[in-house]
Design goal:
Length: 305
């Protein structure tokens, strides 16, 4: 386990040395990795760092507001509203890897504009150890800001948490005083809620996945899962009031893991499962059923696409 005190000092020194008097950009996603990395880099170079948060419309409930609050102390913070752009770009696309590619491409476009505006020579990234392993293994195209370095000429890329596991990043986040909600926040995929809706990404499906994921995170907080989520996996018949409806099927998933590379489906009690079911179907008019996913990884993945 990393010793956060010395780690922070060394990381800040290293960032300062590498970047010197130049400017840098970082893409903030709201997750613990990029948040921790941004805090380290900001400590090192202050407002010469431009943290860019893009609201893709694929983010968790309340994430944009949370970012504004947590990073209010960074005067150089840029919050970009990209909701319409991303939805347009994703229209008609159903293949999971194609979705990732489109989101990655759109993200790079937005980010490129911001990086040029900030006159940045360096790119700071919150890549952690398992990201590198999975990318090298080619399991999924973990886009993060992958592809950006090839598109834009940066003098260098700085990845201060590249050798850490997720739980070590959390330690560092706590040491830096990042609010508990950030330090403790569950991992969330780069392509966001797009991998929690099967098939085409629509605003309606995203809204269901966003609200249901928030219910799951809230209700399972005490069970301390490594990651918990809800996904919109199809349509099925149900009865709401006196009417038969053709509504969404929401899958609930909660897993235990160290690093996401393998995972175990969490054993949950009936009462908890029923409470989740009743909230999701009750709070969303269009949801007809809720199912609980009992599959480990492997053979399943954690996300649905
Ligand atoms: P899977 O679904 O592959 O996920 O078992 C393992 C961990 O990675 C997250 N995940 C992603 N993260 N880009 C990311 O940055 C992606 O394309 C992506 N797909 C999955 C997932 O949420 C889990 O924590």
């Amino acid at each position: 386990m990393v010793d956060p005190g010395p780690f922070v000092d060394e990381a800040v020194d290293e960032i300062r040395e590498t970047i010197g008097d130049a400017n840098a950009v970082i893409a903030l996603s709201g997750g613990v990795d990029s948040s921790t990395t941004a805090a380290l880099a900001y400590e090192a170079i202050g407002d010469r760092l431009t943290p860019v948060y893009v609201d893709t419309g694929l983010m968790r409930k309340g994430e944009t507001e949370q970012i504004r609050e947590t990073f209010a102390y960074m005067e150089s913070l840029r919050v970009v509203d990209g909701r319409e752009r991303f939805l347009d770009a994703l229209s008609g696309i159903t293949d999971p890897e194609e979705k990732r590619a489109v989101i990655g491409e759109e993200f790079i476009r937005v980010f490129e504009e911001e990086a040029r505006g900030a006159d940045a020579d360096y790119l700071v990234q919150g890549t952690i150890y398992p990201d590198r392993i999975e990318s090298e293994g080619g399991i999924k195209s973990h886009h993060n800001v992958g592809g950006l370095p090839e598109r834009m000429e940066f003098e260098g890329i700085v990845e201060p948490v590249r050798d850490l596991y997720k739980d070590e990043v959390r330690e560092v986040a706590r040491h830096l005083g990042l609010e508990e909600i950030v330090a403790e926040r569950m991992p969330f995929p780069g392509p966001g809620l797009a991998v929690r809706v099967i098939g085409e990404v629509t605003e309606e499906k995203l809204d269901v996945a966003r609200e249901a994921s928030a219910v799951v995170e809230e209700e399972l907080e005490e069970h301390d899962p490594w990651q918990a989520l809800a996904a919109v996996i199809g349509k099925a018949t149900g009865v709401k009031g006196d009417n038969r409806v053709h509504g969404w099927v929401v899958a609930v998933r909660s897993v235990e893991s160290r690093d996401g590379m393998t995972a175990r489906a969490q054993e949950l009690d009936w009462e908890t499962l029923q409470r989740i079911q009743s909230r999701i179907t009750g709070e969303n008019e269009t949801v007809a059923r809720v199912v609980y996913d009992v599959t480990h990884k492997p053979p399943a993945t954690i996300e649905y696409e």
